[in-house]
Amino acid sequence: MKIYKADDYRGMSRIAANIISAQIILKPDCVLGLATGSTPIGTYEELVERYNKGDLDFSAVTTVNLDEYKGLTKDNDQSYYYFMHHNLFDHVNIPAENINLPDGTEPDSKKECARYEGLIRSLGGADLQLLGLGHNGHIGFNEPADAFDNETHCVDLQESTIEANKRFFASADDVPRQAYTMGIGTIMRAKKILLVASGKDKAEIVKRAFTGPVCPQVPASILQLHPDVTVVVDAEAGSLL
Ligand code: GLP
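Above: the input record for the complex with GLP. Below: its predicted structure, written as tokens.
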């Protein structure tokens, strides 16, 4: 595992964008696994800037997003579909048919999870998977548990996650209680992994996840076992390392 400590959020975003840009340049038809949350927004801004300068071409890129709230429609401004279009897809030349997310409007969890897992497999898995980090160590929406979940599945969100994400909704009651997420196995099958974390409130979990024991109670800790992981933190998130 490589860990880069940037001075600040901008520096973290630039390093992450460099790694993603290198992936796209080296393999223009790569499969990018993408993430939501506030942390990768600066990375997406950097990528859009490089696209606008003519340095990046997304025309052959395919994307698979980590997760989606169950029950939110695509036009709901809190859906991850909306987030990804607003922050990245609407600003670059990725073909609409190359964009993939779990379908939050599919009520049949078993059917949707099997479809999404099958799709990722049919694409040969992600060449590079971008991840954020939840305060409780979750990646995607893989919450702390007694065992690691392998494939795409439907999760009941934990209170702490609902609490952390309620800032984006009118009230905590509006935060969906369930989500579809790639499993830990799906994530671990990506060829490369890039995790970004920023801010003081992530310092403790960054330390636990990357220097503590590997256990399903801290889902991100399993990344210690992946052969090609890069963690990019800003000074605050990396302050306890
Ligand atoms: C959500 C997402 C995760 C994300 C996490 C952290 O729960 N499902 O993929 O990593 O939040 O978000 P933030 O970057 O806003 O701290």
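Notes for the reader.
The chain has seven helices and ten strands.
The mean pLDDT is 96.
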